[in-house]
TrEMBL record:
This is Helix-turn-helix protein. Keywords: DNA-binding. GO terms for cellular component: cytosol. It comes from the Bacteria. SUPFAM superfamilies: lambda repressor-like DNA-binding domains.
Amino acid sequence: MDLGQTIKEIRKQKGLKQNQFAHLCDITQAYLSQIENNLKEPNLSTLKVISNKLETPLPILFFLSLDNKDVKPEKAEAFKMIAPSVKSLVNQFFVAQ
C-alpha cells in the first residue's frame, strides 16, 4: 500500500502545493512530506482531515493506495489486470476536478 504517494498524487491533481495543503490540514509541511514519502504513518484523525481536504473519501484513498503486495497471491493476476481500469474509474468520480 502506497498511501503517501496516493495523497501526493491527488494533492497535485487538485493543484495544491505541499505547503498550502499542509496549512489546510493544520499540519507542518515537514510532517506532510514525511507522510507523502511513507516515512510517517498518520493517525486516523489526521487521515480523516487529509481525505476531507482532498474531497476524497478515506476508503477511496485506501483503495487507490492498493498495490499487488496487498492482494493474496492467488488473486494477484486478476488484480493486476483490473486495477488500472477500476482505479481510473474511481479517480474520475472521486478525485478529478
